[in-house]
From TrEMBL:
Keywords: Cell membrane, Lipoprotein, Membrane, Signal. This is LppX_LprAFG lipoprotein. Residues 1-20 form the signal peptide. The lineage of its organism: Bacteria, Bacillati, Actinomycetota, Actinomycetes, Geodermatophilales. Belongs to the LppX/LprAFG lipoprotein family. SUPFAM superfamilies: Prokaryotic lipoproteins and lipoprotein localization factors. It is found in: Cell envelope. Pfam families: LppX_LprAFG. InterPro entries: LolA/LolB/LppX, LppX/LprAFG. It comes from Blastococcus brunescens. Its main location: other. Transmembrane segments: none annotated.
Length: 161
């Protein structure tokens, strides 16, 4: 899967509080960052679907990059949502649908969906984000020296179903 690694790593790391925040009480929790990452990975890998909201601060102002979005991902490989993409100096809202490895987007000034290569917009196939073998949860298990703390820049909210 082709994707920009930095935003997705940030997304994965910021998904931890939302995923792990579904249980337990905040006052007595003494789990380590590694424990929370493992719980988040397991939750995401076991979910049939997930809804996410992604926002960013301090994102690039030039080039092509994914800077935000919201959508629903379902197993085995489906996505429907809107992604905000920086392209040609402007932020575009692209309606995106992905089914079994084929990505469609409603491009600006068009009335229908066209098959696209998502790499041209700075992201990979969003339908693969919750694939247990290749998706975002792999970033959760590969984190090194994880620490608890506040995040800055990227924020994400996931709800696994």
């Amino acid at each position: 899967m082709r994707r920009t690694a930095a935003p997705l790593l940030a997304l994965a790391l910021l998904a931890v509080p939302a995923l792990s925040g579904c249980g337990g009480d905040d006052a007595g929790d003494t789990e380590s960052a590694a424990d929370l990452l493992a719980q988040a990975k397991q939750t995401l890998d076991e979910a049939d679907s997930a809804h996410f909201v992604l926002t960013s601060e301090g994102a690039p102002e030039t080039g092509t990059a994914l800077v935000g979005g919201e959508g629903d991902i379902a197993r085995p490989a489906a996505f429907e949502g809107t992604l905000q993409v920086l392209a040609m100096g402007s932020t575009l809202d692209l309606a995106v649908v992905s089914v079994d490895g084929t990505v469609y987007a409603q491009l600006p000034f068009t009335s229908g969906f066209s098959e696209v290569d998502p790499a041209q917009f700075g992201f990979g196939d969003p339908g693969e984000l919750i694939d247990a073998d290749t998706g975002i949860s792999q970033l959760l298990s590969s984190a090194e020296s994880a620490e608890l703390g506040r995040s800055a820049g990227w924020t994400a909210r996931w709800s696994a179903r």
